[in-house]
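Appendix B, record 7
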Amino acid sequence: MRSSRAHVYLFCLIFFAAAFAFSCNSPFTPKPRGYFAISLPEHKYQVFDRPGFPYTFEYPVYGKITQDSTYFEEQPENPYWINIDIPELGGRIYISYNRIGGQARYKVQNSKGEYVDSVGINSFEKLISGSYTLSYKHSYKASSIEDSAFRTANGIDGIFFRIGGNTATANQFLLSDSVKHFLRGALYFDATPNEDSLRPVNVFLKQDLLHLVNTLKWRE
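C-alpha cells (predicted):
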C-alpha cells in the first residue's frame, strides 16, 4: 500500500516538474496594450447665440456652456471667455475672446521682483504672438507641432494647431478678422495626457472643433 502511494506521489512530482519546465522554456508573447472601449455619441449640434456676445457658433448637443473664471492661469479680460464642457468624454474646450485695440490686463515685474497688474492695448500682433506662445508652451512634451492657415466659408481667417505627443492639448485654433475680433480655442482633457488612449476621443472631438470653427460668425 505504501509502495503504491509512493508511486503516485512520485508520478505527480514528475508531472508537475515537467509542466513547470515546459512553461519556463515556452516562448512568451505579451498581449498588446489595450484601453477601455469608449462609447462615442452621435455628432449633433446646437447654436450658441447668447445676447450681447460678439460671436455665435454651433457646438455639440452633449456640450455644456459655462462661464470661464480663469484661462491658462490668467484672469479673463471680459465676460466673453467661456468653456464648453463635455463631461461624457472628460473634455473641455476653452474659448477666449479679445477685442483688437481694446484694453488688456497683464502682469509685470516691478523693482521689488513682485508681479503687479498693468494695463495695455490688445494689438493684433500681440494677440498672435501670445497665441503662438501658448501653443508652443507644450513643445517640451510634444513630438510635433503643426500649424495650418485657413479661411472658412463665412470669410473668417484662422490658424489650426495640431500638437503631437503626450501633451495636455492636441488641438488648438485661433480666428480673427485682424481688425476687431480675435478668438482662441483649445481642447483639454481631465486625464493624464496619453496620446494613444486619447486618440479616439481627440479624433472625435476634432470634428466638433472644426464644425465650431466653420460655423462661427462675428457680430458687428
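Remarks on this record: The domain at 45-218 is CATH 3.40.1000 (Protein Transport Mog1p; Chain A). The longest strand covers residues 142-151.
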